[in-house]
Amino acid sequence: MSDSSFNPKRFVSGLTPRPGVYQMLGADGEVLYVGKAKNLKKRVASYFLRASGSARIESMVDQIHDIAINVTDTENQALLLESSLIKKHRPRYNIVLRDDKSYPYLVITGNHPYPRIRFHRGSRKKPHRYFGPYPNAGSVRRTLDSLQKLFNLRPCSDSFFANRTRPCLQHQIKRCSAPCVQAISETDYASDVADAVRLLEGKSEVLARKLTERMEAASQALDFEQAARYRDQIAALRTIQGPSDAAGTVDDADFVVLEQRAGLNAVGVGTIRSGQHLGYRSFFPKGGADAPPAEVLGAFIGQYYAERPPPREIVVSHTPDDAELLESALGTLSGRRVQIKVKVRGSRARVLKTAHDSLQEAVAGRLLQGEALTQRYLALGELLGLEDRPSRLECFDISHTGGESPVASCVVFDEDGPLKSAYRRFNLTDVTPGDDYAAIRQAVLRRFRRLKEGEAPVPDVLLIDGGKGQLGQAVEAVNEAGMTGVTIISVAKGADRRVGLEQIFRPGAAVPIRPKSDDPGMHLIQQIRDEAHRFAIEGHRGQRGRARKQSVLEEIEGLGPRRRQALLRSFGGLQRVERAGVDELARVEGISRTLAQRIYDRFHS
């Protein structure tokens, strides 16, 4: 410890075993870290008794000059206080959610004979109907746009409404029924508002039935103009619903997924309220590059819901730290039971996967920000001891299932990031199942023979996912192809295959490079390696799927020859059957919803 006046052993001896929050303070009083504890004495003592295994925490401990303690009555109180203090101080050694904006809502005002529909942020104390929270402003505006087209509700302010003598442009383009000039009765307008509320509450099927009944009644009364309006509303409603129900049977839930890539922590949240899928939002918490998934998600959930009403279900990609405590604290906060679920099936699993797919796209965009990428190329050159900054990288990975349908991927990065037009896959032949050494040798040899013939520029750095064995095979293959001047390395994950503990092997070097977890050059290596892994798995699944699909429909229980023919005839082929949602499948004659779910699961499990 750099401060002789602070004696950790003496400090810990006087601590209470009660629950509470501790703040690690630096030399100038800066809050370095905030944590909670069920037993303050045991938790604080653990920092000084043994190495944590985390470079982040070890660095923090070396800078402690004092510790501030807040005792609480319960663990729930400690968790909520911890989240509040992290938000207030933003300690550099905590995982900090940087999100100062309040979440947007859609509002139908309740203090006017002709209620207004509008976007809203801030308090919800006025006597209006609030729907949300939505994950972002774009989601609210898309919903507003759809509701205006469907129900012609007014978006204008009360002062604008009160001073109209003729309809505005919104009425002319059929997005407002012009209640300002009594073009619609108060009763009919109230009916449209009620329909909008039904849709926002997830009662779209109820609304569709009511609109159908009104259309038929209007037709019988020979009011064909009104019947046509109902017909158009039904068509627009079906468009909003989409071909399949993304939310499935989920009524009130958030889907929280984590992606850790190239030194970046990314968390995505998909929101469902009243059975309506409101969209996704991505967050990039600060700090904790080497933190395990459980710690990152635990910190995120605690801070995220400290000021937002939690849903009944929080479906997560990884079990967060203190999951039971989080459930209890959030339940107390919201006044109802809150469940955190990890292993889910059916519609929940599908929404979770979609949330993860959305997050991966956000992460890819984040990693390609120009200044950060340039810095990573410079750092990689320094890490590998190269004279010049590399400008073209290639990475190979192998994917197979028990040796079945092995595929090698080759991904290419230039100074602008992934160069997807240059990606290549190699379907490997004459390779003993599971022999990754032979697989790497064959793929690299085929690639570099083509480069020798001028198919593409030669990379500055060739990266192999693997250890010394894979590296040796790659070096032999490059030499056999007659190529020189390429820096060849392999990267292997460290103990327990943990990200951040990788080792880089070089030809002829007895000792591997062990970069720090926050090294930008290592982050670039992780990024291209993860991309090669993704591209290889995608290719392998396609190869394996083509080999298996000929009989896939025959393997589904309850799907006999007639129903198979009906499916293929309805969708025009197996590929479209595979892409169909449960609702679309269930519309085919003879296919019950249970069977439709079985068909869907067969293609997506």
Task: Describe the protein in words.
The protein has 605 residues and is an alpha+beta fold. 44% of the residues lie in helices and 17% in strands. It has helices at 8-13, 40-49, 55-61, 75-89, 137-151, 158-162, 169-172, 186-200, 204-220, 224-241, 293-304, 323-334, 346-367, 370-384, 436-452, 468-480, 520-548, 561-571, 574-579, 582-586, 593-604, and strands at 20-25, 31-37, 66-71, 105-108, 117-120, 129-131, 253-261, 264-273, 276-283, 313-316, 339-341, 393-401, 404-414, 417-418, 424-427, 461-465, 487-492, 503-505. Strands 12, 13, 14, 15, 16, 17 and 18 form a seven-stranded mixed β-sheet that branches. The protein has a five-stranded mixed β-sheet with strand order 9-8-7-10-11, with helices on both faces. Helix 16 links the parallel strand 16 and strand 17. Helix 14 crosses helix 17 (520-548) and helix 15 (436-452) packs parallel to helix 16. Residues 546-550 have low confidence and may be disordered.
Task: Report the biggest beta sheet as strand number plus sense, adding barrel if it closes.
Answer: 7 strands, mixed
Question: Could you list the spans in which at least 5 consecutive residues all have pLDDT below 50?
Answer: 546-550
Number of helical regions: 21
Determine Rg (CA atoms, Å): 30 Å
Mean pLDDT: 83
Could you provide a short overview of the structure?
The chain has 21 helices and 18 strands. The chain is an alpha+beta fold. The strands form four sheets. Strands 12, 13, 14, 15, 16, 17 and 18 form a seven-stranded mixed beta sheet that branches.
